[in-house]
Design goal:
By secondary structure, this protein is an alpha/beta fold. It contains 10 helices and 16 strands. Helix content is 38%, strand content 17%. Helix 7 (185-196) links the parallel strand 5 (174-178) and strand 6. Helix 1 (31-39) packs antiparallel against helix 2 (46-63), helix 2 (46-63) packs antiparallel against helix 3 and helix 2 (46-63) runs antiparallel to helix 5.
Length: 329
């Protein structure tokens, strides 16, 4: 099953807010529906958001054919549904470039974005597994953060796709999935995906990761990115930076896996990236239940920046870059 796809004139997604309790497929017929799904994280993950952006423009082209003002407004809405991940706006703009040729041309480009992400996932899995075989002891014990499997892409995934490929080769030791606050995307989604693949995993609170590394229980950290800056800084789910510091101190590889489409040569460093703050509710409660007193405030950055010199390697579908050794993307 694909995380996101175009089916009979509508966008179909796996609703990630329902997991792991229910596997629910939603059909989205309008641009506003799709934008709401993006903002509520029913569909999320850099590659999946790139496809969602392109499909959103395809919906706009069909729904507002002959009305360029309404089409432009809908495209703007899609592009700006979330600010930090580069793939969303990139996919939308790529599809929008075909608007003068009509809805069929726009859809053809959107489907091409989807197919390229599928191919990229397969290439990253192979290249990443090869790299880990080079850098790690046999059957490495991996720590991963947030969710980077098929749910974050279309199929396969990024970092979790590498983990699953290692398992397929018989070369995986163990997996620790950090729970990934505040929405528990590691505990809810990554552990579910690993279970679907027949891979056992242990869930750890985010703060335990660096200590597990220091205690010698982790051989490598592997995670994704929502944006890779021109200097090699990576932007990923909040908590990634702490894991990078832990890996650096423990002397183990810190590997970022993301498609080439996530590389943003127009953004010089991580300091130039707008970091989405998702408001207090996700920190002060969970699924409608308050976990903090009403008087408490919160700060909720959805992402953080890992400096390039803490990154052992960036694996894309086309290449391996080693920022800590001075290589630039």
């Amino acid at each position: 099953m694909r995380t996101i796809d175009w089916v009979d004139g509508a966008v179909e997604i796996i609703d990630q807010t329902a997991l792991p309790d229910r596997l629910t497929v939603r059909r989205l017929h309008g641009v506003e529906e799709l934008v709401a799904a993006i903002r509520t994280l029913a569909v999320r993950g850099a590659p999946a958001l790139g496809v969602a952006g392109a499909f959103g423009v395809a919906l706009a082209a069909r729904l507002h054919e002959g009305d360029p003002v309404a089409t432009a407004a809908a495209v703007h809405l899609v592009e700006n549904a979330r600010p930090t991940a580069v793939n969303l706006a990139l996919g939308a703009r790529r599809a929008a470039a075909r608007l003068p040729e009509g809805p069929d041309a726009v859809l053809a480009t959107a489907l091409a974005v989807r197919d390229e992400e599928i191919a990229a996932a397969a290439a990253m899995a192979e290249r990443g597994a090869d790299l880990l075989a080079e850098l790690c002891p046999p059957r490495p014990r991996m720590l991963t953060h947030c969710n980077t499997g098929a749910l974050a892409a279309v199929v396969g995934g990024t970092a979790l796709g590498v983990v699953i490929e290692l398992h397929r080769r018989g070369g995986l030791g163990a997996v620790v999935a950090s729970e990934t606050r505040p929405l528990l995307q590691g505990a809810r989604l990554t552990s579910w995906e690993l279970g679907q693949a027949g891979i056992e995993c242990r869930v750890a609170v985010d703060g335990a990761g660096p200590f597990l590394m220091a205690r010698g229980e982790i051989d490598a950290v592997i995670l994704g990115a929502d944006r890779i800056c021109a200097n090699g800084d990576t932007v990923n789910k909040i908590g990634s930076y702490a894991h990078a510091l832990g890996a650096h101190r423990a002397g183990i590889p810190f590997i970022v896996v993301a498609p080439e489409s996530t590389v943003d040569h127009h953004t010089a460093t991580g300091a130039d990236v707008e970091i989405e703050d998702r408001g207090p509710d996700e920190v002060l409660g969970f699924r409608g239940t308050a976990t903090a007193p009403a008087s408490a405030g919160a700060v909720n950055p959805a992402f953080d920046v890992t400096p390039y010199d803490l990154i052992t390697a960036i694996v894309t579908d086309r290449r391996v870059v080693r920022p800590a050794l001075g290589e630039r993307v």
